[in-house]
Structure formats: C-alpha cells, structure tokens
Fold each of these.
Amino acid sequence: MTDSHYSRRLFLQGAASLALAERLRTIAPTAQAFAKQKRPMEARLAFVASCSMRGDKIQAFSIAKDRWTHVDSVASRAPSSVVLHPGKHCFYVANEVDSFRDLPRGTIEAYGFDPASGKLTLLDRKELSLSGINPRQLAISPGGDSLAVAIHGGGAYNVFPIRADGALGDVGGIFKEIGSGPRSEAQTAAHPHTLWFAGDGDALLASDSGSDRISVFHLSRAGLVRHSRVDTRPGLGPGSLIVHPGSRFVYVVNELDDSLSCYRFDPTGQRLGEELSWIRLESGVGRGVKRYSMTMDEEGRFLYVSAGDAISQWRLDSASGTVSILQRWRGDVGSAAALTMTGDGQGLLLLDDARDRVVQLEVKRSTGAIVRAKEMARVVSPKAVAIYAC
Amino acid sequence: MSITVTSQDARYNTLKRSRNLRWPAQETDAVSSIELCETAEDAARALQKIIDAGVRPTIRSGGHCYEDFVVNNSGGTILDLSLLSVAHLPEDGKRYRISPGRQLGDVYLDLYKRYGVTIPAGSCYSVGAGGHICGGGYGLLSRLHGLTVDWLSAVDILTVDAHGKVILRRVDAKHDPDLFRACRGAGGGNFGVITGFLFDDLPPAPQEVVDAGISFSWDEMTESRFISIVTKYGGYLETQAKAPDTWGLFTMFGLTHKSAEHLSLSLQFCNPDGTCRDLSVVNEFLEIFRSCGGSSTAVMAPARHAARESAGLLCPEMRPMTRRRYLEATASISGSGGIRAKYKSSHMKRNFTEAEARCIYKHLTMDVPGVDMRANYLAVDSYGGAVNRASLVEETASWQRSSIMKLQFESYWAHEEEDKARLQWVRDFYNDLYSDPGVSAEFAHTPYPGDRYEGCYINYPDCDMLAHSFWPQLYYGDQGLYPFLQAVKRKYDPNNIFHHAMSVRA
C-alpha cells in the first residue's frame, strides 16, 4: 500500500540517491563543479543527439584536440535534449515524440556509457504522464537524484527519480501547466520550454513560452509544487533560461519578442523578482530566424545567444545583473540548433543542423570574444549535446 | 464544499479504484485524492482548485468505465460526481433535469414517479447518468424512442478556458451549439465536467412490457444448428425488425461459452402506445426459432441477470411470457461490477454471415486450459428502429444510425493471475471474427465502418483499438465527425485538461 505516488519505497530510493549523491560530492564533482574545472581535452566524450531521415540516433564521440572521433551510436526516437548525470556514467535523453505504445505521450531514456571506450547501453526508457507529448528539455538536479522534463506539447512538467544504477523510477511529480498568450500562432496553450535547478537544487525554475510565465517549483513528498510564479508581459514567449552563478539573477530569452530579460531571483525565498533589464536581440542577430539557444561561461561573465547563423555575446554585470552587448558574430555557420560551453574553458560548441556538423568556437579568455570556428565532427542534423570529462 | 478524500482517509483505498478491478493496474497509477461533489458549485470550486494546483482531473459519475480512463491518473484527482444527484426538478417551466451522479435505476424511478416519463437508457441499474448519456445512452427502449441524447435539450457543463478559469456554461442548440452537439454522444472526459442534462420533452413510460426468452442447451448444439439460430436472429433484425410496429421489441442474445450450458435469448416488448395489447410482434419473433428447439423462458436476460419473476405468466399461442409493470421490469435489472473484466464492441449493419457464425461458434466452444469460461460471452443486442433516423447524425455525436445489432464481447473473472488468458481469449475472438475475407486487409481485426459494420461504441471503450492508427474512425466514423470534435476540443479545452487514453486528441 502506498499513501501517494511518492511511496515510501520511492522516498527511500530518493533518500538513498541523495545520500549517495552526498558521498559523490566528495569524490566526484557535480555538474556545476564539472563545469568549473578545466580539464584536458584528451579524456573526454561527447554525446550528440541527431534527427534525420536516415535515422534518429545518439552518437558518442571521443574528443581529441582537433577532431572528434565517432565511437558508438544507438538508435533513439527524435532525441531533443541530452543531460549528463553529475556523478554517474550515464546520461538522459528526451524523445520529442507524440506517441508511445499507442498512447499520447513522449518518452525519456537513460543511457549508460563506458568512460574508456564510449560504448553506449540503453538503461531504461520511461513514458511521460499521459498527454505529455513532445518533451524538449531536461534538467538534472545537482545531487543527481531527480530528472525534470519540460513537456512542450503536453503543457506539463514531469520529474522522475533517478535510481542508484542510473535508471529511472516511475514519474514522481507531475504538474499540468495551463495558460495561453496573445500570440495565437504560438500561445494557444501552455508550452513549457526550459527547466533549471537553482542553487543546491531546492528550486526548479521553469519558463513557459505559451503562457508567458516563469515559475519556481520545488519537489516535495506531495509531488511537484509551484512555489511562485511571474507572469511576463503578454506575448514575450519566455524560452531559454539560465540562472547566474550565485543564483541572484535569471536570464531569459523571450522567443516571441526577440529580446533578453534579466530578473532578480531570491534563492532563499525561491521567488523571482522584478525584471531588471530588457534588451532587444533582433538587431543584427538571426535575421528573423526565431530559434534561440543561450549559454553562459562558467564564471558568469558572458552570455552567448545564438539565433540562426549569428551569435551575440553579452557582458554580465555580476553586481547588478544587467547585460551589455560586446560582440555580434556571424561566421561560417548555417543555423544553430544549440549552443553550449565546451566545459574546458576553450570556448563554445555550436550544433549546425543546416550544415550537419558540430563546430567549436574558440573564444579569447580575457574578453570572451569569439575568434574562430572549427568543425569538430560531421553529424547529420545535430540537435543536442552533452560533454563528459573523466 | 466538496469532500476531499486523501490517502490518509479510510475511504481512499476504495474510492481510488474502478469498479473494474483491473484498474488502476499499479499503485503508482492511482490518484492522490478524490473530490466528492454534491452540487455544481462544489464541482466548479473543486475543479478550479485542481487546475490551480497543476493537478490533472479525471471525472467520475457512476464509475462504470470499462477502461482505466478515470482511475489511471498518477498523482491526480478524481472529481467524483456520484453525490451530485439532485432529483429531477423541472427548470424553466417544462424541463427535466438529470444530474450526472444519478444512477440510471434512480433516474427511471424518479422520472416515472414524478412525471410518468422515462429515458431510453441502459439496463444496468447502477450506471451513472453522466458517462452513460454523454456517450449516447442506449437501452431497452432505444428502438422505440431512440438514444437518450436524441432527446437532450441542453447541458450544463464546466469548461476551463485558455487562462485556466473554470466557466459554467449552459449549452444547447443556440448557445455553443458545437459543444452541445459534442456532448450528445462523443463520450465522457473530453471537454469538461457535465453537471446537468436537461430535457424539454421525454417519452412517456410504457404502462407495461412483456418479457420472454428462449434458452438453447449447449448439450444439444451443433455447429450447423448454432449457425442456423444465430443467422435467424440476425435475419429477423435485418428485415422484419425494421418495421415501425416492431420498434418496441428489444432483444438480447447472450451467446455464452459452452461451459455456461445454455445460450439465452431474451426480449422485452411493448407496443408503440406503451401497452402489450397486441403481442403479434413477439410471437412472430419467437416463431422463427420454433424449428430450432430450445426451451422457453419468461424472464429478461437470464444469462446476465438472475432475477426471475413467476407471477403474471401469459401464454399467447405457444410461448410463455411474463407481463410486468414497466417500472418493476426496469428496476429488477441490475448491474455488474467489483470484478475484473474486459469488453469489446461492434455495430453490425447486416446479419451474420455463415462464416461469422461459424467463427463465433468456434470461440464459444474453445477450451482454455485452467480457465473457467462460463463468464465469457458475446452479447448481441438488437439495434436500429428509432435510433436509425439519419437526420440525427448531424445533430448529435452519435453517428451509428444504420446498424441492426450491437455486439459486446465480455469476459469476467476474479483473479489477476487469469488476466493474460482472459484477455487473450477476447482478443483472439475479436480479431478472428473481423478477419473475414469480407474485411479489408487495411482494416483487418476491426469492424471499420463500411457495408457490413459501423465501428465501435464509445461507451464500450477498448484500448486495444488504439493499436490501429484509425481508431478514431472506429468510434466516430469517417464522415467528418472526428475533425469536428477535434475543433470543439481545441476551442473549449485548449490546454487539454480533460484527457484519457481514448479522449479526442486535438
């Protein structure tokens, strides 16, 4: 018998995972700690999600200084997001599908990998809550005990417990988002976009481009509970979201408005505060292509926003949170599907799905400026990437 | 205020379950709470609370859903309307009102005692009006008076707008007519929470009915005899039963597994004027089985219901019948529940072919090692009559208006260990029956709408059908009803709050 979907068994599993994660903190860095370390490039792996007519797959690459080497591939339906576990040799994939076993629901997958060879093993595949279709983004708690899913099509958030072996438990938290906005072409219903665990993972921030809403959730035995929320100005379509190190500021790309907002965040009270700044992105960026990706350097000095074939670099004021433009870069890029930091302090990775390749953008350490682009791997229609360093 | 039942409450473990004990299939599928609502206002407040908390609501009136649509709602809340059962007070001068939580048996009693009218709804006494009516509402008087939704004048329904606000609407032919039409047959759990069905007019309750039946022993059955009996039955429904003077005849043929020892054909009849003065229709019907042997019975549906009435025997010509007061006859029919079960359905526009009858015989005589097959059967109910008024196709969401028979494949059992074998038997039976050479390969294993079949009944949902990409056409036809319902869904439930495995997918 269980007294809720958070059964005692799940609770103990979660507790065990937490305890394990606490131990791992001492022997293995968390994701954020990973990001802060500078590692040699020779001991790393990349896991790239790609979707094409020739088959959707997850590909593993061994990363060398100048080139990635393909080491393994596994089929995976419409992978849209990849996140690495902070302490285990596994990662998680969102499958942007609208049906699984004849029901309207997407799925997520857990993969294990051999850190030496990069060989992949499917650990688990879990269905999302009913009507939770087309998930697009995943976030993993810093302790590595929970995986959160932003379900674009179904207008919901799901949270899954992560077991000691890296596999997933049954969905343990479900939040059905409801709302709409004035932009009928994109806002007839809620469309959860991005999730981000802030601080120690107590707060889960979520943007919703369909309902013009940014929420702060927390996980409890009762499930996924909304602690607070901010309704943005109507029609902004808040999408990509990043919490600044220190958790005082939150940056959000407004996808329907082609703008960038900065909000104050109170990590103790788990509340999003006032909008500190709002800056138009469209000038010189993207030429009307409204597919944005955003990433931040490890120290929180610079923000990079991709849109189409262009990237803008913004300086972040760590005291006030305000942003100012530093660079607008347009190189030999077709269209950026995703932008992320390489994790080794060397620069950025850009997934160019128009030219079927992964590109590394070298940045100047002192200024953060993009100085050159280099193709690292050929990947048909890359969508998402995660980097592992041992 | 609604009554909130959570896991700390002693009622929780009962109320979280379905009457079909297969659901929830696992503990993690179960809801976290149940909100019991006694008024429409309760329901509105509870629904708003559920929405605001980001929780998924599922709706229950009587709890007879065959599939897991209500109780498979991990962490969600059941909005239980079984206490929302206000009696039938007329509104606006002449309307009859039926609350969704009212059980059909009580509906018949109330309508009869207060007004002398009835609804042509189902024979299962404890079925809740909410799910039954919005899926069409069909029963023993349907050949005489049509479906219950054919009489429906308005619906009170709670919808949730794009911003998450609960709105109470009264929809009818002039106000939100698209939603009103959708509520007339598309099935429950799709668009909102119905808190009342309103009728301007209802048919008078019959003064009396006669029950009769024939029992055929499996001991004396052969394949050829079985085929003869079954095709005689279907042949009557395909021909003579189309005459309006027969519309008061409702028949149920329980094609039980051979281990149940008897096949039971039963009927209820009254003349269109609500009397039983002229029983020539009944005699004509029974006469066609004279050459088939069998022993006459004078009770309604003995295979399904054990009720037996000995008083008032009437023996016109050759067959015993029981003349009964309408209300007594209706109230004595009971329902099922509290057991594991699987159901499938189909509508038939033509009599059984010999091949189909042979296929049915094969599966009803098939033994499954270790399984008691007595509670496995195919119920073949008469259909048509007043239901088949073509004009109602466009007015309602009940589109099956050409059928002569409605088939329900049923299996009941007690223990989870038998699930696999039971389900396999039903599935094999169904797939085999619809693998006839007359079935297009594209639509094999289904009664896809066409010359012979008219799909499945949404009130007898079967998630096995989800394996077919064309499952919406099985339940809603291929003449544009499903796209219409999808548009209604987008308009009135833009955030897809009300959903289940077979809900309309926008």
Amino acid sequence: MIRIENLAKTFGAKRAVDGVSFAVERGEVLGFLGPNGAGKSTTMRMITGFIPPTEGTVRVGAHDVVESPLQAKRLIGYLPEAAPSYPDMTVEGFLSFAADMRGLAGDTKKRAIGRVVERCFLASVIHQSIDTLSKGYRHRTCLAQALIHDPEVLILDEPTDGLDPNQKHEVRNLIRELGASKAIVFSTHILEEVDAACSRAIIIDRGKIVANGTPAELRAMSVFAGAVTLQASGADTETMTAKLAALDGVARVEAVDGALRAYPRDSSASGRLVRTVVELAAREGWQLDGLRTEEGQLDEVFRRITLPDTVKAPSR
Amino acid sequence: MSAGHMISTIARRELTSYFASPVAYVFLVIFLLLTGFFTFTAGAFFERGEASLASFFMWHPWLYLVLVPAVGMRLWSEERRAGTLELLFTLPIAPWQAILGKFLASWLFLAIALGLSFPVILTVNVLGEPDNGQILAGYLGSLLMAGAYLAVTCMTSAMTRNQVVSFILSVVILLFLILAGFTPVTDLLVRWASPAFVDTVAAFSVMTHFDGFQRGVIDSRDLLFFLSVIGFALFATGVILRNHRAG
C-alpha cells in the first residue's frame, strides 16, 4: 500500500531524511523508531503530502503523492505529531467538518461519526468545545478525525504521546486491531509499543534507516540475545567463570547481580549454549538455583545503533 | 467531491468560527459605531444638505485600513500557529480551494457588516430623494475594496504565524495602496514628478478606483482593478504557503 523509494529531504544545509526506502503492505503495522530529530516526522509529512520530498518517490495505493496528491490523500488518515484541531469547534463539529472534507454525507456520515466517537471514547465530551478538553481527549479527537473515512492507510505520528497508561493501552489495542485490515505506520519513543502493536519495526537515525525487521529480529541484534544467565552454587565464582569461559561457543562471561552470564560467540552457538551450560554444571556437580536464556533487549539495540560512534565505542 | 463542495465546506467552517467567538460581534458593533460617527459627525452628513451618501462612503478606505486587517489577520497565521495547516493540507483538498474558501468566508463576513449599515440608506431616503443607483454602486465599490484589502491581509497572514505581524504588514501595504492616490499626496508629488509618473502611481491606488463607484459610475477598469488585486494577492498567498511547506 505504501511504497517509498530513496526519499530525501533537505532543509538548508541539513539533510533531515537521507535516502529512506521501505514498503508497507495491508495487514502490516510498521513501528517507526528513532531518537528526536532523526527524521521520523519529516518522513511522515512527506508520505502524507504535507511537505514535498527533495528527492525520491512516495506511492500510496496506486498514486504518487506528488503527482496525484488528492487521490493519494483520500486513502490516508493522518494524525500529526501535535494532534492539532480547531479549538473553537466542538468535538462533534470538528468531526462533522472532517467527514464533510472526506465527502461523507447523510446517514454514512452519521454512522462514521458514531463509529469513531465510540472507538476513541469521546462520547462523554462530544458537545464540548475542543479548547476545554484535556490533552488526552484532544489527542483522541484528532485520532478520530484520522479514522473517520475508514482509510486504507493510517499514518500516526506518536499516537500515544500525552496519554495516560490506560489510554495508551487502548490506543495500542486499537492500532493492532486496525492493523489487520490496513497498512499502518506509527512512530513512537516507547519501545514496549513495538512489541505490543507492531508486526515490523524500522529504526531511523540521522535520516537513514539503521535497522529494519520484526521485533524478534531486532531483539536478536542485541548483545544479550541468546546469552545464558545462571545462578549456581558448589564452586567459587572464579572457578565457575573460568570453566564457563572455557566452554566451546562462549565468547565471554560476566558477573551480574550474583549470577553469571555467558555470552555466545555467535548466533549459531546461542541455540546450543544452554545445553552446554547444563551439562557443565552436571559434570562439575554445581547446584543450579536459576537458569535462563536472555531474549535480547530492544532498548539496548536502540541505544547501540542510534548513539554517535564516539559514545558507543567504549560500551562494547 | 467537487471543488464547490470543498470550498463551501471550508468557508462554512471559517464563518462558523467567526461567530463562535466574541470577535465577530465586537467587530460588527465597532464597525457600525465608527461608520455612524464618521458619516454623521466627522462627515457632516446633515450640514451638507444633500441627499447622498458621500459622507458615508468617503471614510471607507480609511476605516477598512484598520478593520479589514483585524478580520483577516488570523486566516492563515492561526492555522500555522495551531498546526492545523498540516491537518488541512493533508486532507484531500487542493490548496487553491482552501485559500478561496477561507477568503470567501471572511469576505462574506465583511459583506454582512457592510449590509448591516443599511439604516443609512433608509435615513437618506426618508430625508430626501437620493439617487439609489449611485448608492448601490457605492456599496458595490465598497465591497470590492473590502475584498481587495482582505486578499492583501490574507497574503500577509500566510507569511507569519504571528497575527500581530500579519496585521502590521497588511496595514503598511494597504496604506501605500491608499496614499498612492490620496489627493494631498498626489498634489505633493506633482510638484517635482512628471504628471505621467504621478498618474501611474495613482493608478495603483484604491482611492482612484473607488472614486468612480462613489460617483455612481461602474467602470470596467475599476472592477478589473479590484478583481486583479484580489486575484494577485490570493495567488501570492498560494505561493507563500507552498514555499512554507517546502521548507
């Protein structure tokens, strides 16, 4: 549904987005991650046709966003980062305006408004003027506007920003549910959301894509992925560390909070690692008090690939 | 979805937002008070002893100088400030339709304000036998002039997210458009510049082109002048907004 090729945007001398390519199909929820100023919002603004790209193409459905903007925009529902709305309007007036702009009328319009009001939990504030609403409600009013025409493509810029934990949960569920039948791109800072809602994630840094994969694939990039952590007694820590380090497939051993963590040499060694460790413990007569295989941590992956080189070098 | 549907949707929203705030009512009251004051007191309506609205229309270029920018200054600057510009330009609407829709809504608002000054017509008709055709031409000219002022304000409000800056910019531009043809100024110019030069400068002035309407003459050149100011300023608005989005 969304096909982006070599997208670039230059503001003065700064290259905010630098050669980004990816595609999102129907049924996919793409999480768009990256530090502040990485180019997430700029990319989304180019997809939705708000700002023209300096280079590259964006196709939404069968339409090029630059060449046939109106056809492309009809397919898109967009929640901008600041969730803007007209403060002097009531929630109902604003949604009615959005419906009119989308060409909905009569019963279809009434049903569409009813549907998004229910979906975004706005029923209690429907007749209130938007400037009297709290941030969470204003945010959801703008989200409702994006959903009003049941679009095939949803672009959501930080949809859970400023919501309380319950609302965050609801919105994540909503995204996952909608993702079954739509192509969705949403940006976030919150890494748990990638697990909670995405089928795929892209990490962007300084305008370039630095990682692209399923949440599990991204986690596997972590240095922790496949590491075995064990708590055992029966020998002193030095002996255990030495014996573990001597095992085939173990790169290094590290003491963590009274336990020992053995890192695999490479990803092919990680599958067998836990068995080798158990066999060693049995051979040496250690009593195992705890044993687990690490899954890898998204935040560690995120930090490692988005921090400048000078900062990340010593942490390895 | 036709262009007409999009334009009228935008215009309706804009017009509703005028009346949703006290600004509209404050403006209407002030506009009517000021026209009344200028016509009857400063314009010496009764002392003139003639059945015409000359003392009513002669103040309009000056009255609009302050009041029209006040109506139009928020048109685009507010969209920029609140971020709704991003919402508007990601909806399936062509930019010219949005520009025209917002302009027409504000123009209609000014037309309502102007229309509410109808008691002066009744007054002058009760007191004497005025040329109602001339009065109608005056109203038409006044409305066109308001439209031209508004289009200029539309343009300045697209330049900035700050309403005050937009107001001041448009007052300065409009002041130039008035003074270029204001008799005391042209009399001064003619002392050292050639009459052809003075005439060329004056041809850009709203005063020169509003003059005919006040006398009851609807000249196609005057019509064309106001319509082309509107057209040019709205086109410039489109260019400014496009450049703003392109960054």
